[in-house]
Every structure is written in C-alpha cells, then in structure tokens.
Fold this protein.
Amino acid sequence: MFFESDRSKSEFSMLCKDSGQYDFDNARENWPTCLEDVQCPVPPEIPTSSEYVQKKDEGYVHIQYYEYPLPTGPKFKNLTSEHLNTTFNRNFDVTLTYGCGAAREFMNPDGSSHPIQKLTCQWNREWKPQAIIPECDWVACLRPPSPPESTNLVLLDWQGEVLPFGGEARYACKRGMKFEDDPALEFVVYECTDGSEQYTKRGFVNTPSEPDKWPRCMEAPQCPTPPPVPYEGKVTNNPVVFDLEKETSCGVDSKSFDISCFSFMSIYVQTAYFGRKKKLNKKQMCNGNEDEDPKGGPDADCINTDVIEDIRQQCHGKSKCSFNYASHAYPLPEACDRYRREINTTYICILCHKWYEILESDDCVKSALVNNQWIMSEKLVNMTSEDRRTNLMLTLQDRTANKIGDLAGRKDKDPHGSLCGIAALYWVLFDTIRKKKYLFGKKNFFWLHLYLLFFLNNYYVI
C-alpha cells in the first residue's frame, strides 16, 4: 500500500523526544491515509462520427494500465466507441491515448491539428495534462459518396483509402453506357474539399447534393421526341444492336506498350498480331501513331498471331497491364526481316463479377444487397440484421421463382442453397444477361430469362 499524500513513500515515522513523548499530535488529520490505488474522474468519451460505418474507421482509445498492489508491468488494450467511458481503467498511472478515427484529427486553437491526445491519471486523482480532449475535425475525406443508382455511374480507382484535401474522385458510366449530356465524356471529377470555398463542406467530396443534379448515363444518347405519327400513317421502330466498343493498342521495336480499361473493368484481348500488314502507306507504323519506317513496308502481310496468347496470359483479368516482347520470339518469313515490326492489339473492357466475394463477406446479406444494387449501402446503416435478411428475402422472391416460405427456411450462408448463394448466382448470371439484352431477340431473351429463374430455384450447391 502507499500513502495518499506521497505515492513515493510507504513508511511513516515520528520523533521520540527526550521527555519520552512522541513529537506528534494524535489527531486523525495528522495520520497519513494508506491506499492500494486511486481513481481519476470518468475520462472523456471516445470520439466518433456518424460517417463511420466500418469498425476500422472508428475513433479509439489505447489504454496502458497497471494492476495493483503488485504491478508486474504495463498491460494494454484498445477500445472503440462502442465501449462506454465508465468502463475505462482510470487508476494511478493509467495512460489513455485517444484517436479521432479515419480522416479526422484533434484541432489546435491555431487551426493546426494533431493525431493523438494523451491523458495520464496522477496520484492526486487528476488527469494530466488536462481532463478533456480537443474537438475532432476532418483533415481529409473518409470516402467518396456512392452515386445515386439512377445515374448508372461507377466510382473509379478508389481502394478504400482516405482522400486528401484536393484529391479527386472520378466517376464513369457503367459498361455500354454514355453520359447523357456529353457522350464523348469519359468520366466526371469531384474534389475532396476543406470547406474554404462557398457551398462546400470540410471533409466531404463536392458531389451534387440532390440525386437529380448528378450527371446521368444512358445506353445511348437520346434524340429529341420524334414528331407525331401522320394521320392514318405508321411509324416503324428498328432497334439498333449496341456492341461493346473496341479499343486498340500498338507498340514497336521491342518497346513496352500499355493496355488499359477503367478500374472496375477487365481486359479481354480479341485480336493481336506481330509484324506488319500490307498498307497503302508502307512507311506508316501503328496507323500513324509511331515514327515511320524509312525502309517502307512489305508487299504482303507479314504477321504472326501467336503473340495473342502471351498478351492474354499477362493481361486478362486486369484493368491495366504493360506488354513488351523480343522480336525473335515470334518468327516471320525471311522477306520480312528488313522491316520494323509492331504489335497491334484489339481488346474490349468487360465486367468480371467476383460472385464469391458475397459468400466470403463477414456480412454476406449486406454484400448481397449492395453488390446486386438492390439497396444503397447508406440505407443499411440503421437497419438491424433481421431487417436486412427480410429485405433480401423479399427481393429474391420478386426476382426469382423462390417463394418467401422457402427462402425463410434457408440459412444466410450454407453449402446447400443459402440466401447469399442465390444472390451471388443472380449477380453473376442475371446481370450479365441483362447487360447483353440487345444481343438477343425478344423470343430468345424470354426463354433465357425463364431458364435463369429455373436455375436459381433449383441450384442448391454453392
């Protein structure tokens, strides 16, 4: 035990005088009080924000504490805002290290910030340096917002990291779609703002505040409303088949060249050749995109198509890749040796749905709803797990041949016919068919749709 008045001492003495009396006034207030420990007041709560929907982003407190009366060394634990401050250790020499959470820091009076704030419990039952912590504020953007579902936009190149002030969030149209107002536009950009400009909010991306203010993507630009049908006349509607746009890439003289798609798409190489094709402009390389060949070009095609397998092996399944080659790797006729060579590729950008991510998710019901775009992730924040499950069952009933009674008896995750398994199949199958609906006649699409419903109703092993 220790003296309350002096933590460093564990003994108390008094002087025996020559008179045989102790030099001490025997009153309670003159005796020291011995304690095993002291407790400081309840410390501040852990900072948090309503924007934090993932535990990894939460504010925290790191606690270093001792157990008395015989401390053997410090112990440690980390708590997030789900823990009440009344449960924190607050005895002597406890140190609490607070953090605001992702993209936020403690603000100083001069406008600067610091990432952590420490409080230490003293023997006099006071927190040092003070019993409060400063306010937290945004020093970056936690995440770019999800675009409204009706816009058909997709967020590009964001892997979950915070976005610094001035950092850009890019949104592009889904595959096969174009911006309604400007079909030639590739993507739109919004910035993470520090709140210094009018109508901006510190720590948030300056996206439109209303859903109808966002740019919108469509499967093709819309023409104005056509004129009315003449009296007793008729109008014929000839639907156009929209195919995926092809991209090309070309490199020469063993130099590397890049093949790329938007980050949410994957490369699929359709054609590729090594060598030179016969052209009217014989000196031209890569359709005029590279320096000309002073020796001209062949009178007949000098090409080797074996290169396509190497490119596919290196690039398929990626959104970006670089390819280089050795000229001797793809033999050409001897008559072609005198000319410079090129590799020319044609590819398309496709969606490769990773359906297994739904089943691997810790909360597969949430993942199923979000990946199928049946509900926006923001709306799930205040839903209970039971509400999410009910929402998933009702959606599956509407979109598949399963009845609610059958769905209610299924587990969320299971090797045999789980709710999340059906949702994963729906994502990978129906979304692919839906995107290619213009490639099927109405009759074929009708039977294909029936087949899908049968498959979802009878496929049990996931």
